[in-house]
Design a protein that fits this description.
86% helix, 225 residues, 0% strand, 2 domains, disordered C terminus, flat, single chain, mainly alpha
Amino acid sequence: MIDAIVRSSIFGFRNADKVINTNDKGRIFADIGQFTNALTNTAELDNKLGKGAQAAISAMASASKESSVLRVAGKGAQWAAKNVNPLLIGAAGYRVLVADDKGSALKKETLGMASMFFVEGLMKDFFKSNLFTNLKGKVKNKYVKAGISILEGILFVCGSIAGSRAGYKLGENLIQNNKKVTNNSLSLQAPATTAQTITDNKSVSAQDDYEQEFFIPGQGKQITA
């Protein structure tokens, strides 16, 4: 539970920073879902923090009964909380749409998101594995257990970020390599174009000489009757 709160909160603050300070506005809906998950999971804790979160949720629920706007907003937040990953994909699609080079952006976003979800899947499987569960189960101290859960959430976030960056980097490298191949192909074609230009220049030069020899009075051969 604590690990879910940690990762949802960190992701929420990171995405909020990007929404506020960059043009990546498409993350806002996923951000709402992440903060909603953090609040909901916090409300399940059996401590003062959990009771405070539950009181906040109850207050919002009571207020929504009196306001259709708040009721719709609450349902939207709950839906976003259950669909964070699709919303993140939607945010990636928005970044492609607003990019100048949409083809390159599509490649980078596809590889970035795929790599991120792949690494997250591996980490989820590890944290659910018998090895990790048994190791965690041997810890009896509740504070140490809480510390392990916090570390689990932090490691998940770090793995997700690392996977995303690796995918984006791979996409950038592929795009750069494609540009190099294209430039090399153009360079190989350049000599043929140059040769053709030289031939054309010779033809023009020969024509100029011909005209100078026969059609300019006082120069070259003279035409006599």
